[in-house]
Write a structure and sequence with these properties.
Layout: H1 3-7, H2 13-24, H3 28-39, H4 47-56
Length: about 70
């Protein structure tokens, strides 16, 4: 008996839920892509911006609550 044939018709409850959700809300994946683009897909910063940002950083001591020695 081939194990693949035995369980090929099985679908988990989660898979069924996702299929049902996608049928109810066909634009769901597009909204997810838009949300991801809003938070994560950013334009690359130019070398000038990177240099300006690194030059403007203020050095900080290792433990900020310690009195300065």
């Amino acid at each position: 008996m081939n194990i693949n044939n035995q369980y090929s018709a099985y679908e988990s409850e989660f898979t069924q839920f996702l299929k049902q959700l996608k049928q109810q809300k066909p634009d769901l994946e597009e909204k997810q892509r838009q949300g991801r683009a809003l938070l994560w897909d950013k334009e690359a910063t130019s070398l000038d911006d990177q240099a300006r940002r690194s030059a403007s950083l203020v050095s900080q001591q290792a433990y900020v609550y310690q009195n300065k020695l």
